[in-house]
Amino acid sequence: MDVTVTMIQAWLDKFTQAIETNKAYLSDLDTPIGDGDHGNNMARGMAAYQEAFAKQNPATISDTFKVLSMALISKVGGASGPLYGSAFMNLTKATKDLTVIQKDELGALVAQGLAGIQARGKAEVGDKTMVDVWAPVAAALQQGQLTTETITVAKEGTKELVAKKGRASYLGERSLGHIDPGAASSALLFETLLETIA
Ligand code: ADP
Ligand code: MG
Ligand code: MG
Question: DhaL domain: from which residue to which, for each copy (predicted)?
């Protein structure tokens, strides 16, 4: 089955809800290894998306991603805003002429989003960032085998990593044993995607 604009918008509504529900959890993850604001940052960004969406009523997949990207870049006062914003700006470009997304194109699209995150943030796999969820999710989707377990393993796996990028990198080895907050919000993004396309 193809992924329609309605499904993309339903996905982003589910993600907004998941962020709202997990706001305190995400900020709690950010407390020992960051500045304790990740849940609030993401909630502010998704509220800004909902507000801009209601005003602009985007009719295409590409325009929907653009509204999200601009909201995250302009309204999130943290590293995660421009990083997610770059991902969704790449998706805006990659879906320019599409009225639907074929399911087997989703992996390539997530890989484009990942490329945006890496172009901006310079993190590699293993640096304990959101990249450690986006990369295995893109790979699994490209093989047509993304499961919630893949997502959970990727997120939990950031506990075993020493942070090399972002605020958590200031802690060095002391960042060990903690889940990366951006990996956790990215897990919500892809869990809600899976629910939407199931
Ligand atoms: P801030 O650190 O500015 O307070 P947030 O708390 O909202 O911003 O986001 C922190 C998250 O951003 C981290 O958990 C990590 O996943 C992600 N992050 C930070 N720097 C980078 C980077 N250079 N590349 C990829 N992701 C990053
Ligand atoms: Mg923070
Ligand atoms: Mg901050």
Answer: 6-195
Distance 141 CA to ligand 3 centre (A): 31
Over the stretch 68-79, which tens digit does the pLDDT of each residue have? 999 999 999 899
Torsion of CA 73, 75, 77, 83, to 10 degrees: -20
* Tokens read off for 126: 């293993």
Q: Mutation test of ligand 1: which of 42, 129, 159 has the most ligand atoms closer than 8 Å to its C-beta?
A: 129
CATH 1.10.150.120 fits 3-197, yes or no: no
> Could you tell me the residue ranges of all domains in the chain?
3-197
CB atoms within 10 A of CB 182: 34
> Contact at 8 Å (CB) between 185 and 19?
yes
Instruction: Tell me the pLDDT tens digit for each residue of 168-191.
Output: 999 999 999 999 999 999 999 999
Mean predicted confidence (pLDDT) in 7-35: 98
